[in-house]
Write a structure and sequence with these properties.
about 325 residues; alpha+beta; BirA Bifunctional Protein, domain 2; 9-stranded mixed β-sheet; 3-stranded antiparallel β-sheet
Length: about 325
């Protein structure tokens, strides 16, 4: 046996005690609001189709039966929405989730997600609740908010609703050093590069969390699309940034099973174009949507990243008991 193997935790014990306090504070926050804590399966027969997600898979093989693929959850979202469709009411979960290929200073293949759904709250009210939670359990200052469209106007002086894809491509090339001249992607790809590589670093210097809302309708994911007060068709979706970190992603949830099936099919077509495996669609989830998901909003928040802000650490492995390479 190699006696030089480092068996020690990657986080200091004092940090793990602070983490335990955070979990207790989160549970108290939702208990005070009568939101039910739930648990859902970590393994599923289906997996997200989104092109930006890669799932871990394993085989389940009862004796004498052909093995069947199961997938580790990238989020408890689909199972939680099945509970909502069954009449659970307001629910939350502190869940272990898994994403293949994500390892670095701010990424770990296994991480902890706080996810909650609120039939009682509107899109804007959920944003307010996220802000309240961050103040109460993490001591962060009150957030400011801005529309996605306004962020591009403020930081890049471009009206994304008035320019074509070539303009966005040229802007990206001029703003991001080292991007290969033959880089190819679609309109949303250029927008996402500008947001992550140019705008997000500028949000990081602000002393308060920032909620960016009303994303382009083409980036709706599982959110509703609506016409906002500016007359733009947008996704009812928001993201929360603080201290240079993307912390949370929330929606006014799409309830249309056929629209969701269409989006999943489009995802799988894009996966094929990118030489990624096609993912099995979650028919249990779509059946629940057809039965009737109540009007609701929902949000997922990375608790490990929140711990980075609370403790002012630099790497995820410093706030979890054992980093991936010590697991």
């Amino acid at each position: 046996m190699n006696s030089t193997i480092d068996w020690q935790p990657s986080a200091e014990i004092v940090t793990l005690k602070r983490r335990a306090q955070l979990l207790a504070d989160v549970r108290r926050f939702f208990s005070e609001r009568n939101v039910l804590e739930v648990e859902t399966p970590v393994l599923s027969q289906a997996a997200p189709t989104a092109t930006y997600l890669d799932s871990f898979s394993t085989l389940y093989q009862p004796t004498g039966i052909t093995p069947k693929a199961y997938y580790l959850q990238t989020s408890p979202e689909f199972a939680m929405k099945r509970l909502l469709a069954a009449g659970s009411g307001d629910i939350y979960q502190i869940a272990k989730v898994f994403r293949h290929g994500e390892l670095g200073r701010l990424h770990n293949p296994e991480f902890t997600m706080l996810e909650w759904y609120r039939p009682a709250l509107s899109y804007q009210a959920l944003m307010t609740e996220v802000d309240t939670l961050l103040q109460e359990v993490a001591g962060l200052p009150a957030a400011i908010s801005m529309r996605y469209h306004e962020a591009f106007l403020q930081y890049l002086d471009v009206d994304i609703d008035a320019v074509d894809t070539d303009v966005l491509r040229n802007l990206t090339m001029s703003q991001i050093n080292g991007l290969p001249s033959d880089w190819q992607c679609g309109r949303d790809g250029w927008l996402e590069l500008l947001m992550s590589e140019v705008i997000e670093p500028r949000l990081a210097v602000l002393a308060v969390p920032v909620m960016v809302f009303d994303f382009p309708s083409s980036q709706a994911q599982l959110a509703k699309v609506y016409q906002n007060s500016l007359g733009h068709n947008v996704a009812a979706r928001f993201e929360v940034y603080a201290g240079g970190l993307e912390l949370a992603n929330g929606y006014d949830e799409c309830q249309d099973a056929e629209e969701l099936r269409r989006r999943f099919a489009q995802d799988n077509r894009q996966r094929q174009q990118q030489a990624k495996p096609e993912m099995p669609v979650d028919e249990h989830f779509l059946a629940a949507m057809s039965a009737g998901l109540p009007s609701c909003t929902g949000v997922a928040l990375g608790l490990d990243r929140l711990m980075l802000l609370i403790t002012q650490k630099q790497r995820l492995e410093e706030v979890i008991s054992f980093g991936f390479e010590r697991s």
